[in-house]
Amino acid sequence: MTTTVRPERLAPPGQANGFGRSLRAEWTKFRSVRGWSIGLIIGALLTIFLGVFAAGNASVGCGSVINGVQTFQSGKACLPAIPLGPGGEAVTDTFYFVRQPLNGNGSITVRATSLTGFHSNGNQQAQSGPGGNPAAGMQKGLVSWAKAGIIIKASTKQGSAYAAMTTTGSHGVRMQYNYTGDTAGLPGLVSATSPRWLRLTRAGDTISGYDSLDGKHWNLVRTVTLAGLTGTVQAGLFATSPMYLKISQFAGGGNIQSGPSVATGTFDDIRLQGSWPAGRWTGTSVGAGQRGSYPDAGGDYHEAGGQVTVTGSGNIAPVVPGPGSGFPSATVDQTLVGIFVGLIAIVTVAALFVTSEYRRGLIRVTLAATPRRGQVLAAKAAVAGLVSFVVGLVAAIVCMTFGLQRLGRNGLYVLPVSAFTDARVLVGTAATVAVTAVFALAIGVIFRRSALAVTTAIVTVVLPFLLAVTVLPDSAANWVLRLTPAAGLAVEQSIPHYSQVAYISQPAGGQYPLPPLAGFGVLCAWTAAALALAVFLLRRRDA
Amino acid sequence: MSDVTARTAGPPTTAQLRAEVRQVVSLGSLVRTLRAEWTKLRTTSGPAWLLVGTVVVTAAISAAVAAASRCPAGTSCQIDMAKTSLTGVEAGQAVVAILAVLTVCNEYSSQLIRTTLAAMPRRSAVLGAKAVLVGVLVLLAGAVAVGACILVGREILPGHGFTAARGFPALSLTSGPVLRAACGSMLYLTLIALLSIGIAVLVRDSAVAIGAALALLYVFPIVTSFVQNPTWQHRLQRYTPMAGLNIQATTGLHSLPITPWGGLGVLALWAAAALLAGGVVFRLRDA
Fold first, then answer.
1. Are residue A375 and residue A501 in the same domain, yes or no?
2. Within its chain, how far is the Cα of A339 from the centroid?
3. Cβ A458–B218 below 8 Å, yes or no?
4. ipTM
5. Partners of residue B228 in chain A, C-beta under 8 Å
6. Nearest to B109 among A348, A359, A463 (CB)
7. A236: left (phi over 0), alpha (psi -120 to 50) or beta
8. Residue A64, domain member (yes or no)
9. Same-domain check for residues A264 and A386
């Protein structure tokens, strides 16, 4: 007598594609509320405005005295010529090079017996330049990444390919190559009682680095291939010492005192194999004396009785964001700071997308029409995510295009990145916006109240970042940016973290504690958890 | 009233009587309005929970930040003990904003606003009563929350290396700057409530209102930390609502972008402007 009408029977024949229908229904709902579209447009415009504003208000000036006439320049004119490494990244390549040309294959072996140094105390400007005593106004001490060792380099041109075996201030023996490569060798500081033997062998464009404690038993540290290393190369001894940075960190900021430093390495037992036609050493200060170059305190070398002493200052490393590079720099992701206002707008609209259905009782109609509740949520998530992705991508592209122009005009050097990284930052930003929208949507289903849902989403995504860049001490800030949904913003990091450079690595400088995709994964995990809870509650609860 | 009669010898004129009556009536209606708003707040469970939430969130975030702050032996730390202990206010203000926004927007979403305005046609009185009530409630909840924060800072921070011997005396409300930071934080939360009420009346939708309020509170500090031009950084720190948080500073006052009370004054201007704009729109617009 009683007939049960199954929901699926209600669907007219020929419309078996339930998800497609849900998707279309949700898209219709979304686009027919004018306020939501306006909200998204306002969000995108504010994002662009803030991004370009933040980028555009950083004009850099510099003054110089030429023939007694003071001239003032600003913007691009102040920027030094910054060398690029073989990988296309901006690099610092300033050091003292005691070299000989090497034809074809060969090797160089030395014994390093000491590494000492001086650094400025952070207050006084150390005297520099040829002829001046490099240690004037400095105090004794090695900076942690002071380096002295052997190097094979394509040419004396800044930014050319190289591989080096080096002793360091406090990181033991390292093999470093092409500015970004860094592999640890024997630990410990070198001294007369505890010397280190270093060896580099060249076979074509392949260079192997070895180290040894006794000159007999050798460990291979690493073998690297340097593209384009053909014919004659420059090889020999080098010393360099990066800027001394005294960082006193406290909640919400830090004080940086900086100044040049010098390092002196002593070598003996120098053995050369292969074709070294010059037969004698030549001292060259690579990268010295250029306007705006990396602050250095000069260098020199001394040869007596088979022992060579090399003193140098500078660095052979990638340029990192923030102070310490010797010139004002910015990263491409700094043009995207406006994204936070965009996130707030997106979160608001995404939460409303579901909470307004609850408020007006529309959810009952929706669920009567599509009884498969999970499918309804999936369709909503797809619509919110796709719309947010498109809006986010457009806003990010506009921000970056105009932001980079303004940064360049204002005299900031934008650290170059590959087109792939550019694309990852842009698409990643759009994806972060999209996933955050889905997160807010899920929270909207969980709470069913607009104000609560919007606040929860903003407080979990935006507030952790705010606290991390303003009040939190660094260790706490790093944990916050690892664990909360705000971790997703790591996808914007354009310059990787370089452990072989001592610098301040903070989110405000575009450096996050997690790698880009891992951070994005944390946001996705939060969103997946929220979605799972939302589906569970939506199925279980009366609408 | 007696003043009026005392100054004029002889029996009061009709005009004077009318003025008196109007005064009594308007005072009575203000009390009635306040009472009506109080009944509405009291009889829904939301506000009470949100006030509890303000206290819990503020104290919890403060405790977490205090627990994460360390000053290992042998290092020099620069930290403002009061400001660190009061960090939770940054999160607690979001809950305060929800409370303020819902007080207004729930009336719109349930159409109760029409009944309210039919019963009490003086719209400025309705808005004023809401502002006074929410303000007082937030001030009280803020007092509890700030008290908890100071207590948390006092208990946790000395164990993490911030001891009197190293120049960090335990937090105490008897110290003038700490008292200013504590009372100022209560006032800060109150002003955030008023600002949010103004925004809520302007936009009427709770989601949009809360989004706008939190954007105003959270976006400026982030943008400021990215802007590299010191002039603009200084301007943003001085003239946006974030200036109000300078009231929490107890050390390094000379390097603040704006004086503590001056910063709170800037926030008060924002709140006043939002309330005023809300009030004008509220009077002009159909409910």
1. yes
2. 18
3. yes
4. 0.81
5. 54, 57-58, 328, 330, 412
6. A359
7. left
8. no
9. no
Query: How far are the Cα atoms of A31, B53, B127, B286 from residue B118, in angstroms, in the given order?
Result: 36, 33, 14, 12
Give, for all 543 residues of chain A, the pLDDT tens digit.
Answer: 455 545 444 445 445 468 888 888 889 888 888 888 898 999 899 988 888 877 765 556 665 555 556 666 666 666 777 888 898 888 988 899 999 999 989 999 999 999 998 887 655 443 444 334 445 567 888 888 999 999 999 998 889 999 999 999 999 999 999 999 999 999 988 988 999 999 999 998 999 999 999 988 999 999 999 988 888 999 999 999 888 877 655 544 455 677 788 899 999 989 999 999 888 898 988 887 655 456 666 788 888 888 999 999 888 999 888 766 667 788 888 888 888 889 999 999 999 999 888 887 888 888 888 888 888 899 999 999 999 999 999 999 999 998 888 887 777 888 888 889 999 999 999 999 999 999 999 999 999 888 889 999 998 998 888 888 877 777 778 888 899 999 999 998 888 888 888 877 777 777 888 889 999 999 999 999 999 999 999 888 877
Q: What are phi and psi of A38, to 5 degrees?
A: -60, -40
Beta strands in A121-190 (DSSP E): 138-140, 147-153, 162-168, 173-177, 181-184
* Contact residues on chain A for B207, CB-CB shorter than 8 A: 348, 351-352, 355, 450-451, 453-454
Measure the CA angle with vertex A456, ends A453 and A459; round to 5°: 145
Q: Are residues A154 and A276 in the same domain?
A: yes
Total of domains in chain A: 2
Q: Is residue A267 located within the same domain as residue A341?
A: no
Quote the tokens at residue A145: 């990444």
User: Quick check: is A136 in a domain?
Assistant: yes
Structure tokens at A9: 């029977």
Question: Which residue of B lies nearest to A358 if distances are taken between CA atoms?
Answer: B109
The answer to whether residue A68 is domain-embedded is no
Please give the Cα distance from A384 to A390 (Å, whole number). 10
Q: Using the beta-carbon criterion (under 8 Å), do B68 and A475 form an inter-chain contact?
A: yes
| A384 in contact with chain B, both atoms CB, cutoff 8 A | no
| Strand-pair category, A181-184 with A162-168 | unpaired
Q: Within the 394-423 window of chain A, which residues sit less than 8 Å (CB to CB) from chain B?
A: 412
Instruction: Report which residue type is found at A254.
Output: G
Looking at the structure, tell me whether residues A264 and A395 fall in a common domain. Answer: no
User: Is A337 at the interface with chain B, CB within 8 A?
Assistant: yes
Residue A244 DSSP code: E
| Cβ atoms A315, A94 nearer than 8 A | yes
The β-bridge relationship of strands A91-120 and A261-275 is antiparallel
**Pair A237, A220 in one domain:** yes
Domain region containing A108: 93-326
Helix, strand, or coil here: A503? coil
Same domain, A307 and A363: no
Query: Which of A326, A360, A384 represents a domain boundary (last residue)?
Result: A326
Domain boundary residue, one of A265, A296, A326: A326
Residues A236 and A321 in one domain: yes
In a domain, A3, yes or no: no
Contact B46, B102 (CB under 8 A): yes
B211–A347 CB contact, under 8 Å: yes
Residues 6+ apart with CB under 8 A from A526: A439, A460, A484, A485
For the record, the structure tokens of B10 come out as 């002889």
Closest residue in A to B235 (Cα–Cα) = A57
How much is the pTM? Answer: 0.84
